[in-house]
Amino acid sequence: MVRIKNIYYMLAYAFQILNEEGYNNITSEDFDYASDLFAAILSKGITNQIKRGLNKEYLERTEAINRPVGKINISASIKQNFITKKQFVCDYDELLENSYMNKILKTTAMLLLRCQEVSIKNKNALKKVMLYFNEVDEIKPEMIQWSSIKYHRNNSTYKMLLNICYLIIEGMLMTEQNGTLKISRFIDNQHMHRLFEKFVLEYYRRHYPELNASAAHIDWDVNGRHIEYLPVMKSDITLRYKNKILIIDTKYYSKTMQTNSLFDSKTFHSNNLYQIFTYIKNMESFFAGKVSGLILYAKTDEEIVPDSDFIICGNYISIKTLDLNTDFSNITRQLNTIAESFIN
């Protein structure tokens, strides 16, 4: 479980742009649904983007006009008898606001406007900004090619907005029931895991710069043929301080313990332990200092809450939980304790 307001704080760390002026009053609001929170963020974000200027793209147009522009389509002009009217069918490019990015923004906004979980206040805010999208088309959500979106200096401010759109469209379940769009209250585990991971990384980058937090690649300590076929090892978070390294592997599951049905017992997830141990041992082979590991679970409502420390083959490994369903000050306290323990 995650408090709705904590989703905002996690997004604020993951996307630093949420710390800009204009989003501040969101923290003072109470949200019952994630979709309502996203609607608030999106309306404010689009407002800021309108002030900066909406993204434009050169789009192909074909039109019969009096003055030749671009490339004249002779065959179409003759076939449609436009020449006798002193007109030409021309193919030309025009810089328009009907860009792919703006289409995604409008499509997402319209989904939220049809969602019962979005408040009247935030629906009105979305309707207001959509007045600037009259020339922008909607597209089918399932047809969006997220991987085709490329960011550069001129459209970088869209990155946070489109990530919010991605969470809404892809990370939340949408079904049609009696003609009304329903959006589930919680983002699915896969997308929450990515947000959880990014949040922890950016938290340490911001508040503990001396730890040089990064999502570091780990080389294999291996010799032999076909090394190129080995899977890439990349940590969620790697903290470095003096002669010490802490590899943090974040996990967001519905259950933090695995069940052995044969013996009716619960154990830590074996794959998670194997993974962190592999990271540690391979990192250790290229680092002269001390390497330790931490598996950090998002807390669930299970009775057993993982909180254990081990020394395995000489390496310190911890399994901890982070309670995301509490006041955010408690979350920061837990993260600070991890950092301070590592430093000391």
UniProtKB/TrEMBL annotation:
- InterPro entries the UniProt entry points to: McrC, McrC_bac
Instruction: Name the GO terms of the biological process aspect.
Output: DNA restriction-modification system
Q: Where is the signal peptide?
A: none
Name the NCBIfam families on file.
PRK09736.1 (NF007277)
Q: What is the name attached to this protein's record?
A: Putative restriction enzyme modulator protein
